[in-house]
């Protein structure tokens, strides 16, 4: 068992490299001989039923969980955004953003990051006064201010209302393009995965069951040619059969 | 707009005339709330005074309000009250400070490290179940009947509520916040300073409130054993001379100080816990 962390310098072939990684709880192998590479700047979405090992994988990449055997390489500059914003309730928004950041011009960095997510006016707000979407944007700013080469997103939009979620999708793509970190998005939402990701990975029993490259041109929407076919394919892989007939005319989201 | 068939039994129709500008919704004057609240206490006081004057309430049972007022004034003017109050306050503050410090240090040690918990928690949990006032005989044998015993008893009573609540507060921090802090690369010291301690602060204040209440209770008790000054001394002295007016004054002082300290803690909380949803103004 070994864990290497990449440091700056020579340009790596992959931002994330996993080779024969195993993680087991008791007798159950949650991650089972998993091989996975994520290229620098690549946006990968991870789909899978509950218990497929998605969250364990993300936690291993975030450094919150160990591996039992195999090889794992991740950049040290990484950040995670969870389903709940997980902001410190006793710190104002900008203090939350720079928590743990050891730089001199912390406040200026916080202001810049919060401006990027459209919260320049909420610098001094306590998390209790923020709406769900605002809190999640602060969490996003907190991740991005660290200039991560790997951004881990654990169902970050699942608890948001549908309208806020659409805006967050647009924001995440905009920020991804600007900062260009590798992104691993864990989600339950097949549409979200297709809208955002370069590649969708379906995880089952701790292994990569299927990978689908999403070649649809950006500024995607669910009425795009090929979108519904991809959606049906991915849902099929997750064990949900849908008809692809007349749904094409009925776009649900559009952006990205 | 007229609603169709407002008499229809299947609908509930609410109709009110349009508001004219400048017209108040409820025009008639009412006395402010605090005046109404004062009515019944004042009535009780009046009844008490009348009962005393008519001889229904003999002064060896309880003195008349007017007599109590007069005695209070005399005690204030002579400085008797201030001297004894100061002595009591000193005891309470000293005992409380030591108790809080011991409680905080112990809670930090056993809250922040498993080893510390193993060493400290079980003896403290055992000690906690002994009512501190039951230790009076032992303390008198050990330390005599001087000031040390009095302070030690207050310390003993106030340490545990602080310890227990702060310990629970430290251990009760949302593990998700700890996880988030770990992904942000906080060192252990930073984790304690930025996450654990602020998160445990509300529980600490709960402990502080209990400790203050207990310090007062202990004070009343210890000041009745061999003292020559303090509010408790005034009360036990008054008992010997059947001065019910002085006893009532002592009770009043205790309750006023209790209120005062509660107000003080409220203010402290308001500043220290400004981030809590109940305090935050949007």
Show the helix and strand layout:
The complex is a heterodimer of chains A (256) and B (282).
Chain A: E1 2-6, E2 16-25, E3 28-38, E4 43-47, H1 54-61, E5 69-75, E6 78-81, H2 93-97, H3 106-116, H4 132-144, E7 150-154, H5 162-179, E8 182-186, H6 190-196, E9 199-204, E10 207-213, H7 227-237
Helix pairs in contact in A: 3-4
Chain B: H1 33-53, H2 65-78, H3 80-112, H4 114-128, H5 136-143, H6 147-171, H7 175-183, H8 188-222, H9 231-240, H10 244-272
What does this structure look like?
The complex is a heterodimer of chains A (256) and B (282). Chain A has 256 residues and is an alpha/beta fold. Chain A has one domain (2-215): P-loop containing nucleotide triphosphate hydrolases (Rossmann fold, 3-Layer(aba) Sandwich). Chain A is built from seven helices and ten strands. In chain A, the strands form two sheets. In chain A, strands 6-7-8-4-9-10 form a six-stranded mixed β-sheet, sandwiched between helices. The longest helix of chain A has 18 residues, at 162-179. The radius of gyration of chain A is 18 Å and the shape is globular. In chain B, 71% of the residues lie in helices and 0% in strands. Chain B is flat. Chain B has a domain at 88-230: MetI-like fold (Orthogonal Bundle). Chain B starts with 32 loop residues before the first helix and ends in a 10-residue tail after the last helix. Chain B has helices at 33-53, 65-78, 80-112, 114-128, 136-143, 147-171, 175-183, 188-222, 231-240, 244-272. Chain B has ten helices and no strands. The model of chain B has no long low-confidence stretch (mean pLDDT 87). The relative contact order of chain B is 0.10. In chain B, α3 packs antiparallel against α8 (188-222), α3 crosses α9 (231-240) and α5 packs across α6 (147-171). The A-B interface holds A 62-64, 78-80, 82, 84, 86, 88-91, 99-101, 126-129, 142, 146 and B 176-177, 179-186, 190, 194-195, 198-199, 201, 273-277, 280, 282.
Q: What is the helix tally of chain B?
A: 10
| SSE-based structural type of chain B | mainly alpha
Order of SSEs of chain A, N→C? EEEEHEEHHHEHEHEEH
Alpha plus pi helix count of chain A: 7
Number of strand segments of chain A: 10
CATH topology of chain A: Rossmann fold
In CATH, the architecture of chain A is 3-Layer(aba) Sandwich
| Alpha-carbon distance between the two ends of chain B | 37 Å
Unreliable runs of chain A: 5-10, 246-251
Give the overall silhouette of chain A. globular
Based on CA atoms alone, the radius of gyration of chain A comes out at 18 Å
Approximately how much beta-strand content do the residues of chain B carry?
under 5%
Oligomer: heterodimer
Estimate the mean pLDDT confidence of chain B.
87
The end-to-end distance of chain A, rounded to whole angstroms, is: 39 Å
């Amino acid at each position: 068992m070994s864990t290497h962390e990449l440091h700056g310098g020579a340009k790596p072939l992959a931002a994330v490299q996993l080779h024969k990684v195993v993680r087991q709880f008791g007798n159950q192998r949650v991650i089972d001989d998993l091989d996975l590479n994520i290229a620098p700047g690549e946006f990968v979405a991870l789909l899978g039923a509950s218990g497929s090992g998605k969250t364990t994988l993300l936690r291993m990449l975030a450094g919150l969980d160990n591996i039992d055997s195999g090889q794992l390489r991740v950049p040290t500059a990484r950040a995670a955004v969870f389903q709940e914003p997980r902001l410190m309730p006793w710190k104002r928004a900008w203090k939350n953003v720079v928590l743990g950041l050891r730089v001199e011009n912390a406040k200026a960095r916080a202001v810049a990051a919060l401006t990027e997510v459209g919260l320049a006016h909420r610098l001094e707000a306590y998390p209790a006064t923020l709406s769900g979407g605002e809190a999640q944007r602060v969490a996003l700013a907190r991740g991005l201010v660290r200039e991560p080469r790997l951004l881990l997103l654990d169902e970050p939009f699942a608890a948001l209302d549908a309208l806020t979620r659409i805006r967050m999708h647009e924001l995440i793509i905009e920020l991804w393009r600007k900062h260009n970190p590798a992104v691993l998005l864990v989600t339950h939402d097949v549409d979200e995965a297709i809208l955002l990701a370069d590649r969708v990975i379906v995880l089952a029993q701790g292994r990569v069951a299927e990978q689908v490259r999403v070649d649809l041109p950006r500024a995607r929407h669910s009425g795009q040619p090929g979108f519904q076919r991809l959606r049906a394919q991915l849902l099929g892989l997750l064990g949900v059969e849908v008809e692809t007939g007349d749904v094409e005319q009925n776009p649900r989201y559009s952006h990205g | 707009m007229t609603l169709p068939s407002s008499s229809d039994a299947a609908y509930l129709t609410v109709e009110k005339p349009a508001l004219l500008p400048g017209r108040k919704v409820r025009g008639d004057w009412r006395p402010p709330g605090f005046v109404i609240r004062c009515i019944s206490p004042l009535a009780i006081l009046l009844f008490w005074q009348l009962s005393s004057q008519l001889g229904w309430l003999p002064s060896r049972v309880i003195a008349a309000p007017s007599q109590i007022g007069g005695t209070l004034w005399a005690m204030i003017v002579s400085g008797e009250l201030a001297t004894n109050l100061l002595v009591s306050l000193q005891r309470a503050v000293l005992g409380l400070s030591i108790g809080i410090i011991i409680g905080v240090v112990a809670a930090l040690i056993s809250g922040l490290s498993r080893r510390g918990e193993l060493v400290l928690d079980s003896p403290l949990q055992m000690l906690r179940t002994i009512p501190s006032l039951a230790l009076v005989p032992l303390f008198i044998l050990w330390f005599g009947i001087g000031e040390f015993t009095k302070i030690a008893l207050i310390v003993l009573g106030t340490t545990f509520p602080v310890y227990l609540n702060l310990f629970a507060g430290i251990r009760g921090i949302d593990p998700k916040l700890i996880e988030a802090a770990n992904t942000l690369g906080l060192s252990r010291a930073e984790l304690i300073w930025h996450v654990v301690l602020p998160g445990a602060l509300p529980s600490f204040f709960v402990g502080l409130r209990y400790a203050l209440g207990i310090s007062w209770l202990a004070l009343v008790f210890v000041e009745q054993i061999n003292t020559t000054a303090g509010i408790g001394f005034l009360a036990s002295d008054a008992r010997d001379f059947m001065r019910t007016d002085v006893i009532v004054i002592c009770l009043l002082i205790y309750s006023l100080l209790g209120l005062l300290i509660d107000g003080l803690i409220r203010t402290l909380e308001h500043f220290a816990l400004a981030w809590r949803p109940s305090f935050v103004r949007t």
